[in-house]
Amino acid sequence: MGGGKITSRLPKASIGCEGLITRGPLRGEPRQGTVAGYNRHRFYGELACEECLEAVRRHQLRPEVRIRKSQWVVQNPEKRIASLRSYYLSHVESERVRKQNWGKLNPERQREWSRRRRARQANNLVIEFTDEQLAQRMTYWGNRCWMCLGSFDEVDHVIPISLGGPHCLSNLRPACTECNRKKHAKRVA
Fold first, then answer.
1. What is the pLDDT of residues 69-92, one digit of tens each?
2. Beta strands of the chain (E only): which ranges?
3. Which of 51, 58, 159, 163 could form an SS bridge with 33, CB 3.0 to 4.6 Å?
């Protein structure tokens, strides 16, 4: 599929996009600043100039292109997984660094992702919810620990995931670190 962010890493190239388009409805038009120019850069194994990169970005934002890509993803799940796996294996170190940086920039979302993952691994029910819905749930409990009424800094599963509890809003309550550590994997009435 070849999705992802398109970036230029070197100074402007001049070989690939020089000249005129030779086929199709734009025949005779200058190639620079077009998708055809971008493809020529790739053909010559060089990095694309900014004009060609911008043309590809505009092309990828067109609704019919986005629809066609999403249909391809639905129709070819095995190819997509193979493509993603291939990319990951050839960029292991940069992907690891990217994920670490994302986790540092989004600590609460990282924790939420981890909670969902643990619930799925335990074959427990997982009902997706937004950050806003979680914030409303914590406000419902007064943004205080539900066990000691102190300030909260963690989200607690009332029925722990390890005991088959679901990961859904109705099973989540605010808890302070101390109370959550005491409770651990027990049910509290």
1. 899 999 999 999 999 999 899 989
2. 154-157, 172-175
3. 51
Percent of the chain with pLDDT over 90: 50
Predicted model pTM: 0.55
- Phi, psi (deg, nearest 5) at residue 67: -65, -45
Q: Cβ-count burial of 22 within 10 angstroms (0-12 exposed, 13-18 middle, 19+ buried)? A: exposed
Q: Give the span between the Cα atoms of 142 and 60, in whole angstroms.
A: 45
CATH no. for 107-183: 1.10.30
- Number of residues written out for the chain: 189
| Structure tokens belonging to residue 158 | 């009332």
Q: CB-based contacts of 57: which residues, under 8 Å, 6+ apart?
A: 6
Q: Distance (Å, rounded) from C-alpha 26 to C-alpha 20?
A: 9
Where are the domains positioned within the chain? 7-76, 107-183
3-state helix, strand, coil in the chain (%, to 5): 55, 5, 40
* Dihedral angle, C-alpha 82, 87, 88, 92, nearest 10 °: 150
